[in-house]
Amino acid sequence: MNIFLVLYLLVSSVSALNILVLFPHPGASHFYVFEPMFKTLAARGHSLTIVSYAPKKTAVENIRDVGLDENLRSFQEVIHFEMLAKSRKVMWFESNNLGNFARKSCEAAYDNDNLKKFLKEENKFDVILMEFFNSNCLNGLIHKYKAPVIGLSSCQMMPWHGRYFGTQDNPAYTPTTFMDYTDKLTFIERVENTIMKLYCIFTFDYIITPHGNELSKKHWGIDLEEKENILYNTSLMLLNTHPVLNLARSYPPNVIEIGGIHVPSETKKLPKNIEKWIDGSSDGVIYFSLGSMIKGHTFPTDKRKEFLKAFGKLSQTVLWKWENETMEGKPDNVMIQKWMPQFDILCHPNVKAFISHGGLLGVTEAVHCGVPVIVMPQFGDQFTNAKALESVGGGVILHLSEATEESISKALKKVLSSKFRQQAKELSERFRDRPMSPMDTAIYWVEYVARHKGAPHMRTAAVNMPFYQYYLLDVISFLILIVSLTLYIVVYVLKTMLKLFLSSSRKVKIN
To answer: What parts of the sequence cross the membrane (predicted)?
Structure first.
């Protein structure tokens, strides 16, 4: 724990808070980003009630779980390679897919017995921490408990949330979620980026939101349309982003970047079999994992064979997170296992490269540990993450559809080069170099909001501005009118003077 936080803990006057945590999205990885923060808050003496699809298996002091776990398994089984291969053929699939997940998870939440039982209790909360992602179905609880709200996002801010903080990502240089662009866009890319942003907002406002509102009225008697200003009163937003990973963006004072908050402060000892494998590899190890949501048994057989052929020619060894017990055609230098401690592996000095799907958690850990990445993006923000990482020299993109023994070997050769290794270390230094750790920053701001009763002074006036004022449409219209009138008057005067001059000239000629 750094000196700053020690001093802060000594002088802090925040008494124990009663905190409500809302995670309406069933993606467990979203929750795991912030779970260390919840445990830290609990260790500080605060009481947390957590409504999520990821209830803890063992009890934690000061934390109460209201589990929405019935459909978590079915959600995880939705993601497979066949679906992903088809999804990328349609640009708009990602936004529509989020809408489908929102509807299913909202319906499950409203029907959940644990939540129904909890809502019958008389509770009062000092702060509400709520994930801002793809639904509005739990927004009614903000109205019910009337506590300051802090938004949480495990990825970059979604296109429809900026308005609640008086900011909007400019599609001229800021890639919209789902788009594989950098901050330097061509004209066509800017057109596509703008259309995608508008489509995402349309989907949220006119497809996702009405469904959530109907459920809220039906089950809780709360009309979210009447309470539209609920989210406009959000005190703060904590984003799991960092300029090194997510490109530089312009945010107001109440949007705080805490990228890497899930990253542990130190590594743990590796399991003996993995430690022996890594230490015994004289030329280093390549770690291969596509996360928890994409299942290995759906990995295309032909592509797996291409990877195995490329791996078989390496002097390095490979650790492959693979859910099945066996893998046909596996060479001797490849070790498979159902679960592996990813962060501890990546930070081992003998791990030379990481093959990933581009999930923000894994990419963040790789950057933190200084390991170059071969990114095979599959869905969601992984395409944006991959492009951003490639643009800063932290990795290369290899699309699975284009993966052959030759292209895989070429990508491996590139990231294993001394140049790429050095670039990865420099990125790690930039990422780690901060005045406060992500955890210290997050804890400070949560308690700050509580101390200052929602911290309304942090919000910009832009939040309450109508659309036409925010974009200066009234000013632009006024200036156009003034310029038009001025031009009209000038033209009218000139025409009048010309007529008088011509009339005078004719009279002189007649005389």
So the answer is: 470-494
